[in-house]
């Protein structure tokens, strides 16, 4: 699965959470890189959109965001998917809604269909309806009025689609972040529409000639404004929305659209010319009433009936007036005035009437010719109803027309009279028509009254419903008021909670900073202490290795090869204990690790001391060199092990640290095994030498010679160290007297030189004695039966070397000004006497078995005298040092009071007693050491 597939899968997973912003942003960047949405839709098609409603809803939300933020080709690719959105809507509309997402998916698909149709009709807008992108290629002032009005209408339709989607989300309880995630693109979409509509209406206000053209659009905008403001208030109250985008906060009052130029006044229509009122003609005198009225059987009301009627204008006017009178009861005087001629004409029998002028026959022919058949139907009833509601002005106008058509009123009366008296059948038809129309009008009035009552009932019901709706409206307003108060209270609580949270976060940050500072401080202190401890350990190891290479260090004189092997086992066990301790899980006290390190260091110190002493028992120089090299290698491997512990901070932190320490211990094991093999080889060689010593008596003499040569080498190394110490001192200027320290160094060098000459002479004398004994054969001076003398000579040579080395060390310390326990003068005198005693013992041992007249004996005596002379010089220099110290510490008693004098006297007495006691203890200790030395030494056979 590629990275893009994983991103789409994560953005549209089945978890009921909002799509993460980073995933949507990654999809948008990929669309920009491809300049298309086809790869995105290919991955969307692979998701279970028809079976999982959560995945489908999150996919639609992601598509909406990608359309808004992606390139313009994304909108073009989405517009081609209108059939897919419709099929998806139809699919989820058929299935039951279990989680509240099915209805939302259908409504969201409807929104997408409306949006796609809008962009098809208006391709100048991008997917996000950005006003900046629109103004790059268009200007609101340049758009035509009709096109602008159409665009505003379509934008408001799209805003209604947004409102429908918002209402669907609000109604889809219970709420969660997944459902409200669509509010983010909907808020951005609606606010972009709001800005565009405001700009278009602002431009249209000054472009149209009259405000009536866009008044409907403005009123619709005001209606949508309140809904849009409530939508933003609800969206701002949702944390998952307000934390991602800045929800707009619209003012309570909508923007006003005011024209920048005054509107041209409307043109008034020109006044109509008033024509003079028509002259009203007086009616003829009334005709006497008819005593008997033949009443025919009435015709059904709704059955059309055709009757002949003369088309006399005056007769038609009388018939119309009779119908008006029958319908409205003839309540008015004008109706009575109109009905009187008709009743006279109907009920009066035909009588000859006096007329001023006889109408011509041709006029009567035309009158008969004008008679026609009139059909009374519903259309005529409708005309009669409309005529019954008219006023007198049309009647007067009709009378004027009758007058004009007849020429004169006098000429119309004879024709009417003649027509009324011509035939009773015609009168009957006329009366039947009037009665029929009257009955029809009565039925219609009854139907109208029933309709009025029905409408009144409906009106009462509607009024009741209106009251109920007003009651519900008042309840809703009260609920809105409560919600507003609760929202305000919630906002206050949110502000207080945010303040408290910020304070808690600030305190947590401060505590975290303090904790980090303390942790860093203690860690720094621990590392500093660790570095200091390991530095001290490394210095100790370096000192041990230096002591191994120091010729003045003879090591443990009682060391044996078996003791070295035991030291190796002990050192290896301590190293293994250190490894086990550092490899443990959990917290280990730091002091335990340091204790284990010190134990390893102490075991190495004992190993080096015993190895140095045991190396003197190895006669083979090559084996001795390999033996010491193996010991040095163990010291280097131990240093590497300590360095590993230091680098990892004591305890092993991971498997790599454990492997490194295990490798260090394994290397140390190999070095220990090598030294152990060499020790065993040396032990075997020593056993062979001892066996050879039992068989041949000259071996002790050879051993004594070797010991004398080793002592000479040790004394030579001590002399070299004195020369090095003297070279470090600054040279004296010409005329300056040498100081005491320089005198001490010179005396020590003289003693070393004389001792070296003495040991050389003793070595020469021993070699001569051995050669003479070997040359004498079986009867020569063989000393095989006197091994005690050989051991005495050997011990005397060792004593000379040891005392000389101690004298050199004491002299170096005195010359450098270091403090010596017991005092500098005492240390120098004691070591000098020890050198004198050791040289005397060596001279006595050499003279007892050698030829007195031998040249080596004379040289040995002279060397002994030189040692004695140099020792006296050193003692003199030491006494000079003591004199200087006494002069510096001389107390002036002249300034003391009587009390102070007594106190000082008691202090001096106490010091004398203490020194006498220490002197007695020292003498007893020296006597005991000498007795023990002679008691422990067993005679050799």
TrEMBL record:
Domain of life the protein comes from: Eukaryota
Record keywords, A-Z: Actin-binding, Coiled coil, Cytoplasm
Annotated signal peptide: none
Coiled coil found in the keyword field: yes
Gene Ontology cellular component annotations, sorted alphabetically: clathrin coat; clathrin-coated vesicle; cortical actin cytoskeleton; plasma membrane
Record protein name field: I/LWEQ domain-containing protein
GO terms (BP aspect): actin filament organization; clathrin coat assembly; endocytosis; spore germination; spore wall assembly
Location of the I/LWEQ domain: 692-937
Residue ranges of every copy of the ENTH domain listed in the record: 1-126
Single Gene Ontology MF annotation: clathrin light chain binding
Keyword Coiled coil found: yes
InterPro entries to which the protein is assigned, alphabetical: ANTH_dom, ENTH, ENTH_VHS, I/LWEQ_dom_sf, ILWEQ_dom, Sla2_fam
Biased composition (Low complexity): 334-348, 405-427
Pro residues composition-biased segments: 272-288, 349-362
Family per record: Belongs to the SLA2 family.
Gene3D superfamilies reported in the protein's UniProt record: 1.25.40.90, I/LWEQ domain (1.20.1410.10)
Coiled coil: 445-479
Protein encoded by which gene: hipA
Pfam families on file: ANTH, I_LWEQ
Subcellular location: Cytoplasm
């Amino acid at each position: 699965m590629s990275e893009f597939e994983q991103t789409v899968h994560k953005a549209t997973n089945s978890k009921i959470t909002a799509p993460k912003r980073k995933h949507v942003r990654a999809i948008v960047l990929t669309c920009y890189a491809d300049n298309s949405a086809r790869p995105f839709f290919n991955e969307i098609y692979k998701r279970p959109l028809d079976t999982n409603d959560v995945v489908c809803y999150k996919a639609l939300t992601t598509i909406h965001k990608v359309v808004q933020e992606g390139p313009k080709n994304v909108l073009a690719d989405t517009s081609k998917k209108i059939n897919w959105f419709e099929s998806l809507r139809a699919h989820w509309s058929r299935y039951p809604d279990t989680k509240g997402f099915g209805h939302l998916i259908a409504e969201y698909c409807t929104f997408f269909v409306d949006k796609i149709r809008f962009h098809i009709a208006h391709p100048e807008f991008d997917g996000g309806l950005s006003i900046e992108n629109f103004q790059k290629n268009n200007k609101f002032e340049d758009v035509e009025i009709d096109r602008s009005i159409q665009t505003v209408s379509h934008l408001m339709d799209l805003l209604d689609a947004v409102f429908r989607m918002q209402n669907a989300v609000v109604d889809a309880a219970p709420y969660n972040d997944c459902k409200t995630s669509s509010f983010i693109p909907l808020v951005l979409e609606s606010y972009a529409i709001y800005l565009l509509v405001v700009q278009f209406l602002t431009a249209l206000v000054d472009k149209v000639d009259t405000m009536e053209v866009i008044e409907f659009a403005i009123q619709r905008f005001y209606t949508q404004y309140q809904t849009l403001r409530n939508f933003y208030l609800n969206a701002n109250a949702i944390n998952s929305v307000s934390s991602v985008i800045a929800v707009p906060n619209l003012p309570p009052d909508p923007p006003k659209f005011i024209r920048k130029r005054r509107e041209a006044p409307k043109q008034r229509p020109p006044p109509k010319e008033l024509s003079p009122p028509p002259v009203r003609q007086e009616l003829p005198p009334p005709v006497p009433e008819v005593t008997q009225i033949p009443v025919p059987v009435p015709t059904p009301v709704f059955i059309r009936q055709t009757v002949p009627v003369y088309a006399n204008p005056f007769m038609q006017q009388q018939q119309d007036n009779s119908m008006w009178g029958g319908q409205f009861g003839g309540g008015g005087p004008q109706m009575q005035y109109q009905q009187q001629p008709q009743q006279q004409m109907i009920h009066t029998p035909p009588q000859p009437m006096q007329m001023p002028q006889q109408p011509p026959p041709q006029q009567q022919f035309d009158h008969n010719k004008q008679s026609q058949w009139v059909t009374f139907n519903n259309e005529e009833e409708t005309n009669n109803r409309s005529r019954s509601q008219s006023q007198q002005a049309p009647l007067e106008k009709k009378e004027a027309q009758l007058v004009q058509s007849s020429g004169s009123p006098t000429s119309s009366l004879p024709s009417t009279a003649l027509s009324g008296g011509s035939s009773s059948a015609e009168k009957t038809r006329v009366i039947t028509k009037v009665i029929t129309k009257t009955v029809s009008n009565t039925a219609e009035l009854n139907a109208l009254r029933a309709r009025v009552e029905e409408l009144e009932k409906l009106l009462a019901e509607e009024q009741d419903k209106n009251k109920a709706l007003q009651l519900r409206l008042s309840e809703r307003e009260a609920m809105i008021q409560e919600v507003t108060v609760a929202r305000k209270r919630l906002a206050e609580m949110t502000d207080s909670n945010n303040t408290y949270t910020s304070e808690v976060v600030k305190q947590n940050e401060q505590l975290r900073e303090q904790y980090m500072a303390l942790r860093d401080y203690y860690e720094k202190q621990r590392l500093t202490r660790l570095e200091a401890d390991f530095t001290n350990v490394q210095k100790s190891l370096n000192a041990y290795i230096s002591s191994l290479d120091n010729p003045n260090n003879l090591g443990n004189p009682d060391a044996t090869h078996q003791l070295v092997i035991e030291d190796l086992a002990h050192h290896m066990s301590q190293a293994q204990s250190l490894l086990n301790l550092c490899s443990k899980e959990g917290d280990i006290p730091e002091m335990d690790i340091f204790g284990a390190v010190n134990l390893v260091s102490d075991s190495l110190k004992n190993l080096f001391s015993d190895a140095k002493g045991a190396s003197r028992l190895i006669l083979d120089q090559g084996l001795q060199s390999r033996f010491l090299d193996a010991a040095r290698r163990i010291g280097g491997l131990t240093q590497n092990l300590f360095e590993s512990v230091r680098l990892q901070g004591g305890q092993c932190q991971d498997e790599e640290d454990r492997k490194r320490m295990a490798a260090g211990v394994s290397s140390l094991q190999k070095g220990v095994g090598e030294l152990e093999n060499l020790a065993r080889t040396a032990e075997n060689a020593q056993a062979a030498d001892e066996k050879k010593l039992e068989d041949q008596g000259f071996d002790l003499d050879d051993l004594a010679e070797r010991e004398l040569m080793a002592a000479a080498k040790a004394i030579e190394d001590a002399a070299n160290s004195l020369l090095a110490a003297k070279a470090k001192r600054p040279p004296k200027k010409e005329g300056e007297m040498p100081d005491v320290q320089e005198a001490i160094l010179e005396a020590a060098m003289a003693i070393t030189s004389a001792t070296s000459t003495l040991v050389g002479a003793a070595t020469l004398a021993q070699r001569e004695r051995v050669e003479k004994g070997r040359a004498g054969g079986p009867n020569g001076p063989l000393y095989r039966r006197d091994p005690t003398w050989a051991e005495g000579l050997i011990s005397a040579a060792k004593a000379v070397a040891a005392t000389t080395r101690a004298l050199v060390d004491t002299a170096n310390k005195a010359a450098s000004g270091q403090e010596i326990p017991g005092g500098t003068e005492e240390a120098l005198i004691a070591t000098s006497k020890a050198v004198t005693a050791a040289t005397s013992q060596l001279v006595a041992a050499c003279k007892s078995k050698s030829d007195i007249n031998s040249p080596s004996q004379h040289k040995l005596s002279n060397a002994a005298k030189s040692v004695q002379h140099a020792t006296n010089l050193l003692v003199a220099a030491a006494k000079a040092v003591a004199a200087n110290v006494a002069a510096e510490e001389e107390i002036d008693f002249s300034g003391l009071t009587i009390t102070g004098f007594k106190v000082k006297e008691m202090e001096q007495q106490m010091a004398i007693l203490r020194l006498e006691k220490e002197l007695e203890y020292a003498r007893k200790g020296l006597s005991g050491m000498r007795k023990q030395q002679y008691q422990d030494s067993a005679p050799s056979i």
